[in-house]
User: Fold this.
Amino acid sequence: MKAVKNSAAGTLESSDVLVSVIPAGGSAVSLSVDSIVMKQYGRRIRSVAEEMIGTSGLSGASVMIQDRGALECTLRARLETAIERSAAEK
Amino acid sequence: MTQTVLDAREDRWNRRKAVAAGLGKGWAVLSFTLRLPAFLRLKRRYESISELLFDDLLVFLGGKGIESSFREFAVHGDGPEGTCTVRANPLEVKKLCVEFEESHPWGAIADVDVMDREQNAVGRSLIGIQPRKCLVCVSPAAVCVAGRIHSEEEIKRQVDEILSSPPFFPSERIIRHISESAGTALLLEAAAAPKPGLVDPYSRGAHDDMDYFTFLASASALAPWWGVFARKGWNSQGKSPESLFPELRKAGLRAEKTMFAATRGINTHKGLIFSLGVLCAAAGLLAAEGRPLSAENCTSCGASIVKNIVEKDFSGIKQSSADAGSLTAGEKLYLTQKATGIRGEAEQGFPSVLHAGLPELLSGIQAGLSLNDAMINSLLSLMLSVEDTNILSRGGKEGEIYVRETAKEALSAGGMVSEKGKEAVRKMDILFSEKKLSPGGSADLLAVTVYLYLLTQASG
Assistant:
């Protein structure tokens, strides 16, 4: 599933997360994570994101996560939506 | 977290960004939500709490000289939320919002976000303030929330503890007085007995679908709303009273929902939510303007809030909809008999209360009657002058004449002052109940009378 357009899901409200997907050349996916709870949960956020990107089959994209203390289930839902939106036909 | 909640949040975020994008120079947008987990935030109980906090926030900012506009309060899929724009430097207003969150007795559950016109969220870090502490412990809130550190029971207990303190800044004692006067008025009116044809502790009167306990449940559920109305009045200082009404009506509809939830769908206080809602707002407005809370000031301010309401609400009614059966009882009565009911009463400044109910209550109390007996006499004198749509819709003009004649007889026999009068009232109760005549309009205005009595007693 190739990223074809810029997309975002989520918000920068507290206990939420904003996930942005930007199409990039090639097939690699780069991931950047910024979180207000980086110290406590940074690794967990990264591994959840890597897992979801892997299962979705997303390619050729740069994924940016701006986390404001979201629950894991919120993070998963936002990632899923952002990836879907990025690949969707318009 | 359900998808509905997540979608609602995204919606709100997009609306905020849209508002921010349209801001003029020197303005910022505020977004108010409850800092509570979804299992609490989505409960109806928190709607009035939230609206109260949002209104308090605006009062607070107003007191700091910050002008707000575009105010909107609504309940969406993510729970209650308030939005407004403020004329202020985003960093300055964020500082004040933090001050509010930390100084209001219920501020710990308020979450006020600020966005500037470039659509940047202005967080605590930008004004050099530590991240917000958790509701329950001293760790940063985000750490506890994201990690689900505390159990639902633990959070609920803490929130109950916070909400157990009265939600008033010391400067707001007057708002508290207004809201308590209204809350108490509902209870006293319900307890007064014997009320002919009406629900009281000893009788259901003409009703078979509700009793005294239904009224207690309703009064208790509505209690938090009176402060909401009072604050809306307080907040509208400097604007035309009329412009306040649409906002009151919206809050009134939400209060109705609270009532119906408490009574399982029975209408106990719908008319009263209208009258007292307006009069609590009127008192709040007077208090904000530093004018005395007299019954006259309050009712005339109430009248200016509902200016032209009869025409506004009824001018569009057509005979065709009556034929089609799509009209409410009040609308039909207006169409067939030009009866304006509680709207007319309010629009004219509550003349029945001012010239019948209240003088009768006061003279009863001065004559040494118990509050109960003075309230019953007041109710009788209200029956003489109120255009009671409850009576008109069930008993027609004949019913109205019958109610007025019997009330007049009971009063001329001395009302609750004499044995003969008391006997007449008891007889009325039996007859009204048999004939299914329930003077609910008069009962509502008795509650209004008692409210004005309690309101003016301490502050007048």
